[in-house]
Write a structure and sequence with these properties.
With 378 residues, the chain is α+β, with helices and mostly antiparallel strands. It has 8 helices and 21 strands. It folds into 2 domains: 220 residues, P-loop containing nucleotide triphosphate hydrolases (Rossmann fold); 124 residues, Nucleic acid-binding proteins (OB fold (Dihydrolipoamide Acetyltransferase, E2P)), CATH 2.40.50.
Amino acid sequence: MRRVVLDGLMKRYGGVSAVDDASFELRPGGITYVLGPSGAGKTTLARLVAGLERPDDGEIYFDDRMVLAQPPHRRGVGMVFEDLGLWPGVTVAEHVGFPLRMGRRPRAERRRRVAETLTSLRIDSLANRRPEHLSPPQRLRTALARALVTGPELLILDSPLRMLDRREREEAREDLRQVHAESGVTTLAFTDDPDEAMAMADVLAVMDLGRIVQVGPAADLYGRPADVFVARLLGPTNLLQGQVDSLPGDPRGEVIVRTPLGRLIARGASGLSGPGAPVTISVRPECLTVAASVPTGWNRFPATVERIVFRGEIRQIHARGPADWPILVSVLQGNAPVFREGQSLTISLAPEHVVVLPGKFALGNVLPRGGAAGGDAG
């Protein structure tokens, strides 16, 4: 299992920085995901780590060894590309055996390792098939087998699930979990799918415009995003502009913020300046409660139901709060009371779920996305 450290990586094309001072560490034997939208610089970063591109600045360490001078085939890296890189007319077994043949491994060893790898990926019955006769998940397993057959110490996945439909992605995630559990290989994966990243990652790094914006456990980034970009990227959220009313005066670290919904108490906020400082509030829809009773110390405000959207396991309540501010509430279907349009209700919120982000953001550019991942209200 290999420890990988990226330190200040830079890659420019003309006057554009595709990767801009990227620094983070891969835990040995863990799965690190880099999540970002198209154009964030994910593929460039993947190619830098694999040795397919050379950085303009910065360093890459595999354990304690700096590898910038090493060519790709000497880094001990297996890579699966977004398009999988399978050649038409070439059988599955020939694909998987290709890296061994390029490494001049003896024929007997090649046959043994190909057979073992095909069996571990459950595609041994497909050994003589060609890519054009495989399903998308089978093609992905073939690409994975080719990347793993040499026993790499680092596996790089450059968005290989992107072309799969929802059902196929779920199946592919299970394949990746099994491969990782069996091999224990340190894995660096790239994706634009927040659901995939949060479901799979031991460590999550969010990337935008070439920069690593935030790194940590997925649950930490979801619950305590560093800024509005991270908050929106990881799922629906309610955004409010506000001003600091008072800073913490007790051990719980509570701060009071003036917002269109009234004064809200937040807990655990940090990096704020004095009273009057502009801030942005982020509140996940599932953190809002519509129960009749409100626990002591919680925030509360009135709202009116505007419409209700059924989304399978959850019900989304689109409401209007004070100042006609749009509010999105998510309730588990089995726990959802009966609501109707035009109904008045009281919404409550625990202080620890009020995320205070320093600075004022142009919320006019942060419009609802119809409940899709990354959407928000406000």
